[in-house]
Structure formats: C-alpha cells, structure tokens
Amino acid sequence: MEQEASDIAFMQRALELARRAEQDGEVPVGALVVLDNEIIGEGWNHPIGAADPTAHAEIAALRAAASKLGNYRLIGSTLYVTLEPCPMCAGAIVLARVARVVFGAADTLAGASGTVFDLLRSLRLNHRAEVQGGVLGDECSRLLKSFFQTKRNL
C-alpha cells in the first residue's frame, strides 16, 4: 500500500507527540486532527498524570480541535494516531463525525478500527469513517514495544 506524503508527514508529527507522552512515563501514543491540510488539534496520552482514564491521545486531540473550531462536529477532518483507536476513542471519533482515521500500529488487544472491533465502519452507527492503518506502522510499533520492554525490565 502506497502511503501519501502528507499522511507520512502528519504521522511523523503524531510520533513526536507520542514521544512526549513517553517522556512523561505515559504509554507513547500521539494524535492530531487535520482539516484542510492544517493541524487543528493535537494530543498525547496522559491518563496517569491527569488521573483521568479518558485522557487518551485521540480524546485530547479531538477536544483541542473542537475547541479551535467552536464545534464538536469535525466534519471533513482526518485524525492521525500512532496506535489504532480503542472503543472509547472510536466512539468519540464517530460522535465528532471525523471523516478519516489514519493509524500506525494495530492494537491486537483493543483495536476498534478493524483489528478486534470495527466501530468506525459499523453499519449500526449513524456515522462511518474511512480507515487506513499501517502508516509508519513499524516505527509506531517499535516505539510501543521499546516502551513496554523498558517497563518490564525496571
């Protein structure tokens, strides 16, 4: 699968955000929302630091984008995230009406974009998003594997 240059560039920014989470001792996941080729929201995992189970990278990026637009509906936007969204984040993506989701690493435990569940394309919901996985997938996977290997060795 050929990856668009813009998808790679935005995923590289998501990886930078993931590294920020890692510096804080959080699971390294970064996300951003793009509309008309402009980043309108960014976020990284911080549930430990925020003492908030909903403080996932995607939720932070969606909140920032909605705040910037003054609208919870992010019609026509693309969300880039280094790890496949979980069911909670997929639900928020559907509610925000995000048009497209691009993720790096598949989540074989809780992925809700086609790996374990497929909430983003469910015909039972009132909105569906286009999904593309595997963009810089090896790099995203390596970052996560390295983080957890380090945690296990402590």
From TrEMBL:
Could you tell me the superkingdom of the organism this chain comes from? Bacteria
Q: Which InterPro entries does this one have?
A: APOBEC/CMP_deaminase_Zn-bd, CMP_dCMP_dom, Cytidine_deaminase-like, tRNA_aden_deaminase
What cofactor does this chain's UniProt record say it requires?
Zn(2+)
List this protein's GO terms for biological process.
Answer: tRNA wobble adenosine to inosine editing
- Give the catalytic activity: adenosine(34) in tRNA + H2O + H(+) = inosine(34) in tRNA + NH4(+)
The answer on whether this UniProt entry bears the keyword Zinc reads: yes
Q: Which residues form the CMP/dCMP-type deaminase domain?
A: 5-116
* Top EC class, one word: hydrolase
| EC number, UniProt record | 3.5.4.33
Q: Which UniProt keywords apply?
A: Hydrolase, Metal-binding, tRNA processing, Zinc
Instruction: Tell me how the cofactor is bound.
Output: Binds 1 zinc ion per subunit.
Q: Which SUPFAM superfamilies match?
A: Cytidine deaminase-like
Q: Where does Zn(2+) bind?
A: 56, 86, 89
Which GO terms of the molecular function aspect are on file?
A: tRNA-specific adenosine-34 deaminase activity; zinc ion binding
Active site: residue positions = 58 (proton donor)
Q: Any idea what job this protein has?
A: Catalyzes the deamination of adenosine to inosine at the wobble position 34 of tRNA(Arg2).
Subunit architecture: Homodimer.
| Entry similarity comment | Belongs to the cytidine and deoxycytidylate deaminase family. ADAT2 subfamily.
The protein's name is tRNA-specific adenosine deaminase
The organism's taxonomy opens as: Bacteria, Pseudomonadati, Pseudomonadota, Candidatus Muproteobacteria
